[in-house]
Specification:
Blueprint (H helix, E strand, L loop, with lengths): L2 H13 L7 E6 L17 E2 L8 E3 L9 E4 L4 E8 L3 E9 L7 E9 L12 E9 L3 E4 L2 E4 L5 E9 L4 E6 L2 E2 L4 E2 L7 E8 L6 E10 L6 H11 L25
Antiparallel strand pairs: 1-16, 2-5, 3-4, 4-16, 5-15, 6-11, 6-16, 7-8, 7-15, 8-9, 9-10, 11-12, 12-13, 12-14
Helix pairs in contact: 1-2
């Protein structure tokens, strides 16, 4: 089948789809892995730059099922997403013990090595959501009181069409709607990172869902491009590709 034919077929399939976007692109509740095993090498999980230990599977806490992912000091655990078109909803549940110390991070990267459409960037951070001690959850100057000894939900609405994001914590906005990225407008990876002094945090029910409106022109273009396999070169929909605005090679 020619490229043109594949594109037309993909566009037709998208046009016939009503309602919302393409649905769940990634989901993990960590119940498919052996208790006590490192998550790296399973379910697509890796470690930062392929080095060091990852989080481990634990039965000590679970939001659903019987297991969750335990991240302790020095763990730097990465899940690849590689999205550069559309509108997405990222969600993850966190359990922070009341004796938590240090800084634990839920980081979404706009560029990371081997990222499609990274525009030459090696690393580019987007939101860096910090769980600080047992006191607060913070991002970009905004802060909310931290809930401990209970499961809470962190949600990030990601609009790669308009280059916007909105973060909520347990249903409350963590700051207002802000720019997603000052560089590449893409969602590369999730990085669950604890600094060396940080104590345990448990994560569960991670999901990334395509919520691009199927009946919008942007939605049709984005979804047709994805269906045609153009994830590595298709610009974000609704606006021209932004110029590169700098990069860094520092670790997380």
């Amino acid at each position: 089948m020619s490229t043109v034919s594949r594109w037309c077929l993909a566009f037709l399939l998208v046009a016939l789809t009503s309602g919302h976007g393409m649905g769940a692109a990634f989901f993990d509740n960590f119940d498919a892995y052996a208790d006590g095993s490192e998550v790296k090498g399973q379910g697509g999980w890796v470690t930062w730059d392929g080095t060091g230990p990852s989080g481990v599977i634990s039965t000590a806490q679970a939001a659903s099922g019987s297991q969750s992912l335990l991240i302790v000091g020095g763990n730097d655990t990465v899940a690849p997403f590689y999205k550069n078109v559309g509108v997405w909803e990222f969600k993850i549940k966190a359990f922070v013990p009341s004796d938590h110390v240090g800084s634990s991070f839920v980081i979404l990267m706009a560029a990371y090595p081997q990222t499609a459409g990274g525009s030459g960037h090696t690393y580019y951070w987007a939101p860096q959501i910090e769980i600080k001690d047992a006191a607060t959850i913070n991002e970009g100057g905004a802060s909310l009181p931290l809930v401990t000894d209970a499961w809470t939900e962190i949600k990030v609405a990601i609009d790669l069409v308009q280059n916007k994001k909105q973060i909520t914590y347990n249903g409350t906005a963590l700051g207002g709607e802000t720019t997603w990225s000052g560089g590449p407008v893409a969602l590369a990876v999730l990085d669950l990172y604890n600094d060396g002094a940080a104590s345990a945090v448990y994560y569960d029910d991670l999901s990334l869902t395509d919520v691009t409106p199927a009946d919008s022109m942007a939605g049709r273009r984005c979804r047709a491009a994805s269906a045609a396999g153009s994830t590595t070169s298709t610009p974000r929909c609704g606006a021209p590709r932004r110029p590169s605005m700098g990069s860094t090679t520092a670790s997380s």
